[in-house]
Amino acid sequence: MDIFIISLRTIIMFIAVFIFFRLSGKKDLGEISVLDIIVSLMVAELSASIIEKPDLPLSFPDRRLPLQSCEGQSPTIRGR
């Protein structure tokens, strides 16, 4: 039963991520900015967390998941 649920969640998240990237309109690597790469990594992390943890709902995932990978890291802003 777990294999079926994980497979179904994987297919659903693949379709959702595929649609997300198709709507972004980036077709060439030269068109991708740093912000696009960061957003892509965050979407990938959130998708992996949803697939790996079957107790999380697909429709409204835990908002803290992307922030858990940043614990203990504090960004610094340098003035010029």
TrEMBL record:
Name the keywords, alphabetized.
Membrane, Transmembrane, Transmembrane helix
UniProt protein name? DUF421 domain-containing protein
Q: Which parts of the chain span the membrane according to its record?
A: 6-25
